[in-house]
């Protein structure tokens, strides 16, 4: 699933980290790219467990396809791109 989904699913509790690769002149570096994409019609929104007992949802729920469309249509402003999905 898209890394920014973690912030929405956790209702803002967790966020993705900045990617930073450090070069070590003593060792060879190996990188592996791993991708996982949710089903287009999977629901993306704060998990019910995190908004029960009077908790308040911070982000709008929507299907993954709409989440990605909104995400890529937002103006890039550093890490705050998911903030446009706040309620």
Ordered list of secondary-structure elements with their pairings:
Elements lengths: L4 H5 L33 E2 L3 H4 L10 E2 H10 L14
Antiparallel strand pairs: 1-2
Defining key terms:
single chain, mainly alpha, 87 residues, two-stranded antiparallel ribbon
Beta-strand percentage? Answer: under 5%
General form = elongated
Radius of gyration: 16 Å
Number of strands: 2
Q: How are helices and strands ordered from N to C?
A: HEHEH
The helix content, as a percent range, equals: 10-25%
Q: Main β-sheet: number of strands, strand sense, barrel status?
A: 2 strands, antiparallel
Span of the ends, CA to CA: 21 Å
Spatially, the strands of the biggest sheet line up as 1-2
Structural class: mainly alpha
pLDDT < 50 stretches: none
Number of helical segments with 4 or more residues: 3
Summed over residues and divided by their number, the pLDDT gives a mean of 79
How is this structure best summarized?
By secondary structure, this protein is mainly α. It has three helices and two strands. The chain has a domain at 1-16 and 35-78.
